[in-house]
Design a protein that fits this description.
Elements lengths: L1 H17 L20 H27 L3 E3 L7 H4 L9 H25 L2 H22 L2 E2 L15 E2 L1 H18 L20 H18 L5 H13 L11 E3 L10 H7 L6 E3 L1 H9 L5 H4 L42 E4 L1 H13 L7 H15 L5 H4 L11 H11 L5 H11 L25 H4 L22
Antiparallel strand pairs: 1-5, 2-3, 4-6
Helix pairs in contact: 1-2, 1-4, 2-4, 2-5, 2-9, 2-16, 4-5, 5-6, 5-7, 6-7, 7-8, 7-12, 12-13, 12-15, 13-15, 15-16
Amino acid sequence: MKSIYKSIIAWVMMFGFFSCGDDILDINKDPNNPGTSTPQLTLPAGQVALAVTLEADYNLMGAHLAQYWTQGPTASQFSFLEQYNITTNSYNGAWSRMYASALEDLEFVRKAAIEDGTPNYAAIAMLLQAYSFQILVDLYDQIPYTEALQGKDGLLEPKFDDGEAVYDDLIVKIDAALDLIDISSTAVTPVGDDLIYGGNMRKWISFGNTLKLKIYIRQSEARPSVAQAGIQAMYDAGATFLTPGNDALVSFTPNTNNQNPLWQILNQTTFQNIVASATSIQEFINNADDRISAYYDVSPNTNTYVGLPQGTGTTSGDQFADFSAPDGNTVINADADVILISGYESLFLQAEAAERGWGTGDPKSLYDQAVMASFSFHGLDGSALVSPGGNYEYDGELSTIYYQKWLAFNGKQGFEGWNEWRRTGVPVLSPSLQGQALPNTFPLRLIWPANETSTNPNAPELEALDAPVWWDKTF
């Protein structure tokens, strides 16, 4: 399995960063499966493709837009993010990896597992499909969904579904997946084939419930009555959620072709493309928050934590060594994990549900546990900060939960940090100093990629980059 895993990662990385042919970019065509495969071989391929895209594209993007990171003063690779110059060509490869690799692989697993009578494989595939489609809705709003993944049936120009309708059906998909799960001792379950939970189906149940909770919370401002009813039904049914130590993640190693995908990209450019954003680093300094040592390295020149104002880039005349960079041990490292859902994220979701009166439990207790779990994930102790009189003592305000989520997502879950900032507006950010493409405002979505709009006549008219997606009522 280790050799298969290495081959999977090598193929996905090559596909993602070096392929550009039209055939391989067809979202209703599967380049992974030559026609003879098995769920056992294809499940890890789908998991890796999802992890690679999440980490190398969306977490990297989100970390800039949520102002955890900014473009280094002596480099320009990610200047398009600081300039808000995100075009139809910026994320072609990521769109293709999500559809033609991750989702197609998972669809193969789902169908083959149902035919083979191994429903646990099908359930895992369906849960990860739901996770992937939520990512795409959160990025683009309208996406191919009901007609996607049907290229083998001749449907090569899928219609686009509204994001709200996709969200509704994701709940149905998750429930169907949970109904398939068999936790009996005689059930066929993945072990080494499942890179996330090793076939532990109880953890997959908690993953599915936590994903549902996230989907409902995400629409808290757009459809509060729908969110409330859905969450209350989950609690009434005794839903279990992910806990610290049961994070959903894909692990990588320092071995060649098995390394963290973001590390592989940045290692090719000696890491000088990214430094700490002053927006984030100042918050950790002001609050005497030890997580700063997990998220950032000290400046080589000053041996202190120093951030660069967002979007300053090459205009400052400074050097890379004048600033802190993302931590080289836990954040950008060859063996850094890619997190899908963390235990502390689960607790923050539960805390918000409880504070809104939609879920059970004590909001303060859940909030305290979430903050401390974020610290303990990095081997740190945050108990003093949430204690009475501490900088993070809970005050019963939703904005306090939002702020702590933004802090906790730094480094490891940049995409979720940007998503939650768009939903809540917390913290208050200032636009990038180089945001010429969107003066005095922010990117609030991605634009549908050219490799889709140029080949699919059913693609919608392009939206403006600062047009909010359906659940975003903050902007």
